[in-house]
Amino acid sequence: MQTTNGAFPTEELRGRFARARRVCVLTGAGVSAESGIPTFRGGGGAAVWKGLPFDVISSAEMVERDLQAVWEWFDFRREVIRVVRPNPAHEALARWQDLFEDFTLVTQNIDGLHQAAGSSEVIELHGNIWRARCVMCGRLEHLSHDHSQMRSPRCTNCEGEMRPDVVLFGEIVPPEAFERAMLKAQACELFFVVGTSALVYPAAAIPEMAQTAGAFVVEINPELTPLSGFCNEVINGKAGEILPLFDAR
Fold this sequence. Notes:
By secondary structure, this protein is α/β, with parallel strands linked by helices. The chain contains ten helices and twelve strands. It has two domains: 2-37 and 85-126 and 173-246, TPP-binding domain (Rossmann fold, 3-Layer(aba) Sandwich); 43-82 and 146-166, no CATH class. A hairpin with a 2-residue loop joins strand 3 (48-49) and strand 4. It starts with a strand and ends in a 7-residue tail after the last helix.
């Protein structure tokens, strides 16, 4: 592991970036935190929601028990996110999609800020807070940025109840999304893991898959993580300050 303290990647990494054709990036909550979004586990600064711990109100069990309460919780989360804008890290990654023959952006975030910055075809491992999913037929519908919609909304296809299209406690990552991320990680030459503590599986296993397949793995994070020791290069710093430095290939 080579650790870079400060804003400048090593010459080796700059060279690899310039030569790379297949690049994959995994982002986590730290990227959105730089836009001012509290981490999901922090519940918008609250450890509980109306007396319920965040890991209860955000659980699959709660969808079965009190879907209305789940909607109230996620309406609160959307209200926190609604006024937030993409930061330089989101914007840099949106530019990267035009730099490489094959570029893949995988995120654990549910806020949609990558898409707001211009990234297309983002692999969302944990869903999106601006979508609802029918519990009966699986239809997806976009949610507006206001709260005028009925809660719990009904599916326009089958009239079934809709739920937030996010991965809750007690649920698994969508297999199709994880498989796509895994295949792209195993095929890339250069892999970046940005702003994630690398504690949540199976997402935390994706960088390991990339390195096992021969990729050069780079971590960008203000602090060391459990993943740092096996990365080829670690850059300690904010994603919004470091990622734009790669633009001049």
